[in-house]
Structures are given as structure tokens and as C-alpha cells.
Amino acid sequence: MSQASYRKQYINQDQSNIYRLNTGDIMINYQTTYNRYVVVEGVLIMYKCFTNGEKFCVGIIGKGYTMFPKKERHQQYYYIYQLEALKLTYILSMSEKKSYSYLCTNQQYKYYYNVVDIIIHKTMRQRIVQLLLTLCELTGVPKQSCKYMLLEIALPLSTIATIVCSHRNTVSKIMIELKNEKRILYTRNYIIVYNTILTTCS
Q1: Which keywords belong to this entry (predicted)?
Q2: Cβ–Cβ under 8 Å, residues 44 and 28
Q3: Which residues pair with 61 in a beta bridge?
Q4: Which of 89, 98, 135, 170 is most deeply buried (CB count within 10 A of its CB)?
Q5: How many domains does the chain contain in total?
Q6: Beta bridge partners of residue 81, listed in sequence order
């Protein structure tokens, strides 16, 4: 991702807005806002970033998912939330009052996908496969009578490594293995996941 295409947007006021994030854009959520957020379109990776520089992934957010930061007013926090768009994404930000009205009229809201369900797997290969299957569920487009799923997202190897708690070199090796086994086709701008990935071994 070039420096010119890298943008940050900040959420720091309790008001209603719609934010547009292009692929690779990052949105920062500080602890001084108590808004609620709904993904209208797109896919996001949510990170928790601490003041000591540490950063880890806490969730994957797809279309229709709702984010409800659990915050206590007048409490000091040592972290922020960082949202990275994997494709063109629109986020609706609502004040507490408006979000209450939204919840009253939309009972089938969904929270973000917890990455614990990914990193609970023992091997890195299993974690990566589970990540790909999760993305297929969130944003995959079936092609050729469901012979494969098309993921129109930009997912760098470094991002995969952060999500599965691994290193880029390890992720690169596993992705090459899956490609050689004709289970995936990995490119910079999209990923194809073949249905044979369901039979992949650990």
C-alpha cells in the first residue's frame, strides 16, 4: 500500500455520521466517544492498540455487523481501537440515543466475529484456513456453482500474520502450500478459495 493511499479517519465526537473507507484506510476510535457503529457495506479488521506499541486483532466485522465498545465514562484507558478496511467500506456512526432507537427496531443485529474462534486452532495452517472460511462467510461471492468463493478484498500477508498471531514468513509459506495444492489463489487484490479447502488437512 502506497503512502499516498494511506488515510486515517478519527472518531472522537458523540454524533451521527457515515464514514467511507477505501481499501487500506484506517479508522481510529478513541475512548472519548460512546457512539455505536454499524457496517453498512464492506469488511473491517478491528485491532486493539496499546500505548506501549503493542497491537493485536480482536475481531472481523462484516456487512450488517454492529460494534458496541464497552466503555465506562470517566475511566482512563490505555488503548484505542483501530479499524482497517479490506475493501470499500461504509460505517454508520450513531449517538447513544439514536443507537437505542436502532436496537429497538432491529432485533437481529450481530456483533463482530471474535478472532478467538480462529486462534483457538492448534496449527497455523488450521488458523489460516479458518480465517479464509470466515471471510468466505462474511463477504464471499460463490462462483461456478459454488466450486469456489471469490473474496474481493486486499488482505496483505502481514495482516493475516497479525490476525492468526504468527509471522509473515510463516504465513507466506502456508499460503504457497495452499496455492500449490490448488485450494486457493492468492493475489494482491482478491483471493479465490476453492471448495477443496474444506478437505485440507492440518
Answers
A1: Chloroplast, Plastid
A2: no
A3: 44
A4: 89
A5: 2
A6: 29, 48
